[in-house]
Write a structure and sequence with these properties.
- There is one protein chain.
- The protein is α+β, with helices and mostly antiparallel strands.
- The protein is built from 17 helices and 19 strands.
- The chain has helices at 3-24, 27-40, 56-63, 110-123, 171-176, 178-184, 186-208, 249-257, 295-314, 336-342, 352-355, 358-363, 370-381, 435-450, 461-468, 481-489, 511-518; strands at 76-89, 92-99, 102-109, 129-138, 144-155, 212-213, 219-220, 232-235, 240-244, 262-270, 282-291, 318-321, 324-327, 332-335, 390-396, 405-406, 409-420, 423-430, 474-480.
- The protein is elongated, with a radius of gyration of 30 Å.
- The chain binds one RNA strand through helix 1, strand 1, strand 2, strand 3 and helix 4.
Length: 521
RNA sequence: GGGCGCGUAGCUCAAUUGGCAGAGCAACUGACUCUUAAUCAGUAGGUUGAAGGUUCGAUUCCUUCCGCGCUCACCA
């Protein structure tokens, strides 16, 4: 396109529409007008494929240490990114392009890029996505930059970006419009990269030990494997109600029966409960099952897994959370009864004999069985004090319908939970594999259900049938990925580690209507 | 669901005892060919979350509602 024509188009658009714009003062309208200016210059407001030579992080990794002299002979690059800052000075100027969380400065000089590309540079808005071609150099102040010789437009921003040095702080917008959070807050980006590293580390470690990854039903005709209320949905053709799973446990153990002796699944569970800083209705669990081991074996395995995950995610075994230094290098271990004695607050610390005495336990609690009383005391007294990563083992049978009894103490089961930062992050046990005992446990749960306990298990007869074919002795464990991610990233709320946490739907946005009204004007 | 707190320009935040709704950034116009929170001159931008009420007068006080956060209960 001849330069004169382009310039003319630019000027005409300005003079004819400027008055309307200033009267309306609508950013959208300004931006849509700018799209027409871009098109008049022969640019596409939403470009297509762009061949780049480097990503911005690649350039920074390769050339950050190079001096001006070492950038000679010229290093030619083609890069793309989102415009993060613009500093215009008449017939030249700078901008920072942001890509994959890192930024690189470009220098655009009219003499170097020509009239048309310089007109494009002058029209850029913060948030536009552009491609640039040129060579690397260092500015007078020493910043590695691209001396641009050609500029290309790849995508237009119609809405204004978050403010540049405070970033985006409104938590509601950060959760609802996570894309803005990811653009504006490097810390948020880092959290989700760390989350991905945590999951990758678990996968790598489990694969290397011969575990295979499987997917089991999310929609289940019977829900089980945990104590929780489910979400209900409906399948039209079969005309049946289905439940979103509260846990994959019963399916994974069917697979162990079937000879998949080491299986794991990393996926969502859904529990129809309240929301809090530690609870989202859908959350991600790792569950794994290993035949021929028991909860003692899993304690050792868990310690290794968590230690390595901490290293893979953060570079070391120590992390700081809420001002406390947590060490994943080793997990402390207490039985539940030991923990009640050890973490007792104030006077009247019980003896070991007392925490084993049903009469003493019942006297401390409103619960009707010694086991439930012990659990209640533990939760009230101990849980919040378990800051260091800690294993608590040997749980009362009443609260554990799927765990195997301790042979020497049938009122307790071979179960442990992992705590850190006062939160439960893991739950594991020696799986109950006696179908007759499992049938009795389900019937106990049914009785609790009839007394009004909505969270008690239903009878899963196919599961009993599976066990009746024989399940090898097996250890199984679940680890809450969201909470572990909170701890390893220093997040206060589970919503900070879930990309799109559940929120109430927002009201009408009104953008579609505004765009419709502005179309073709 | 209960309790406490917050909601002001696109973003981050002010506004004295109830007395003319403001600033910075972003936007718009102009100047500027090595800036980096660029600078300089100017312009525009508001149903103060919504609806009622008290008052001569409400961002401010009261009521209800909406949204978010914290917390308690339930849960992992």
């Amino acid at each position: 396109m001849p330069l004169g024509a382009a310039g003319e188009a630019f000027i005409i658009t300005n003079s004819s529409e400027e008055i309307d714009l200033s009267l309306e003062d609508d950013l959208l309208e300004q931006r849509l007008a700018r799209i027409r200016e871009l098109e008049a210059l022969g640019y596409r407001p939403y470009g297509n494929r762009f061949e780049f030579t480097h990503t911005i992080p690649e350039i920074l990794a390769q050339y950050s240490s190079k001096t001006a002299e070492e950038l000679n002979p010229q290093v030619r690059v083609r890069i793309a990114g989102r415009v993060q800052t613009i500093r215009r000075m008449g017939k030249a100027g700078f901008a920072h392009l942001l890509q994959n969380g890192e930024r690189l400065q470009i220098y655009v000089k009219k003499d170097a890029v020509g009239e048309r590309d310089f007109a494009l540079y002058q029209m850029l808005d913060l948030g536009d996505i552009v491609g640039a071609e040129g060579y690397l150099f260092r500015t007078r102040t020493g910043e590695l930059s691209v001396h641009v010789e050609h500029l290309e437009h790849l995508a237009k921003t119609l809405l204004s970006m978050p403010e540049k040095w405070h970033g985006l702080e409104d938590v509601e917008i950060r959760y609802r419009q996570r894309y803005l959070d990811l653009i504006a807050n490097p810390e948020s980006r880092r959290v989700f990269l760390t989350r991905a590293k945590i999951i990758a580390s678990f996968r790598r470690q489990l694969e290397s030990r011969g575990f295979i990854e499987v997917e089991t039903p999310m929609m289940q005709p019977l829900y089980g494997g945990a104590a929780a209320r489910p979400f209900t949905t409906h399948h039209n053709t079969l005309d049946i109600d289905l439940y979103l799973r509260i846990a994959p446990e019963l399916y994974l153990k069917r697979l162990v029966v079937g000879g998949l002796e080491r299986v794991y699944e990393i996926n969502r569970n859904f529990r129809n409960e309240g929301l809090s800083t530690q609870h989202n209705p859908e959350f991600t669990m790792l569950e794994f099952y290993q035949a021929y081991t028991d909860y003692r074996g899993l304690m050792d395995f868990s310690s290794e897994l968590l230690r390595q995950v901490a290293i893979d995610a953060t570079g070391g075994t120590e992390v700081e959370y809420e001002g406390c230094k947590l060490d994943f290098g080793r997990l402390e271990r207490y039985s539940m009864r030991e923990a009640v004695v050890a973490f007792w607050k104030g006077g009247g610390r019980p003896t070991h004999e007392q925490v084993c005495d049903p009469q003493w336990l019942l006297a401390q609690s409103s619960k009707s069985t010694p086991g439930e009383a012990l659990t209640e005391i533990f939760e009230n007294v101990v849980e919040e004090q378990l800051i260091q990563p800690t294993i608590i083992y040997d749980y009362p049978v009443e609260t554990s319908p799927l765990s195997k009894n301790k042979p020497e103490d049938p009122a307790f089961v071979e179960r442990f939970e992992i705590y850190a930062a006062g939160m439960e992050i893991g739950n594991a046990y020696t799986e109950l594999n006696d179908p007759q005992e499992q049938r009795r446990r389900f019937e106990m749960q049914l009785a609790m259900r009839q007394r009004g306990d909505e969270e008690a298990h239903q009878m899963d007869e196919d599961y009993v049938r599976a066990l009746s074919y024989g399940m090898p002795p097996t250890g199984g464990e679940g680890i809450g990925i969201d909470r572990l991610t909170m701890i390893l990233t220093g997040a206060r709320s589970i919503r900070d580690v879930i990309l799109f946490p559940l929120l109430r739907p927002e009201g009408p946005i009104g953008l579609a209507e505004r765009l419709r009204n502005l179309e073709g004007r």
